[in-house]
Amino acid sequence: MERIICLIIGYAFGLFQTAYIYGKAHGVDIRQMGSGNAGTTNTLRVFGTKAGLIVFFGDVLKCAAAVTVVRFLYGSSEISYLLMIYAGAGAILGHNFPFYMHFRGGKGIAATAGLILALHPAFIPVGIVLFFTAFFTTHYVSLGSLLVYAGFLIELIVLGQTGVFGMSQGALYEMYAVGVFLTAMAYIKHRANIVRLLKGEERRTYLSKKSEL
To answer: What is the DSSP letter of 47?
Structure first.
């Protein structure tokens, strides 16, 4: 029951669609612009750097807030980290599949950054290094995002097996399963990007200007 509650809490936070709200405030539906994705990268390309940063931080904060609420509610539980990752998963699902937008949301990368920030500080340095190294050397947001997810899953297992989360092996296996689910979902959501990366046709993104649509 606790897991379901945490998923619902997370999903409710994830429904705050920053990109969609920003677009509507400027008279457009972001899903009808650019790539059609209601997320940070498309907002950056359509509206520019300032808008992209606003949407990014909005999506980061909503997932971090969901995890923080669950930390407050269940911080004394023996499976507190497991419940927090359920909250993060709920927020990512809410972001990717908002019911009131006919389940057409984003790809969940900024929301995942919120999970990484709020779950445990050990995840932060690796995530920053992986994303920005890939982005500033290639300007492929998708590549950086996919590397972050791979790094997150590997680090989740390493930290779990070294006792950082202080949970039983059964709870850790469940936590890893959630991590595998989130990683698989991210790669599936990015399947078109992966094909373009392999073909050398992926669109590059620059912070200094709007990308051509």
So the answer is: H
Q: Any alpha helices (H) in 120-202, and if so which ranges?
A: 123-138, 141-161, 169-189, 191-199
What is the span of the domain harbouring residue 155? 2-199
- Of 116, 113, 114, whose CA–CA distance to 155 is shortest? 116
d(CA 12, CA 177): 22
Q: Which of 19, 212, 190, 36 is nearest to 203 (CA)?
A: 212
Total structural domains within the chain: 1
Output the CA angle 37-40-41, nearest 5 degrees.
70
Residue 205 belongs to some domain of the structure: no
pLDDT tens for residues 172-204? Answer: 999 999 999 999 999 999 999 899 989 888 888
> Element (H or E) spanning 2, and its range?
helix 2-14
- This prediction's pTM: 0.89
Residue 204 included in any domain: no
82 in a structural domain: yes
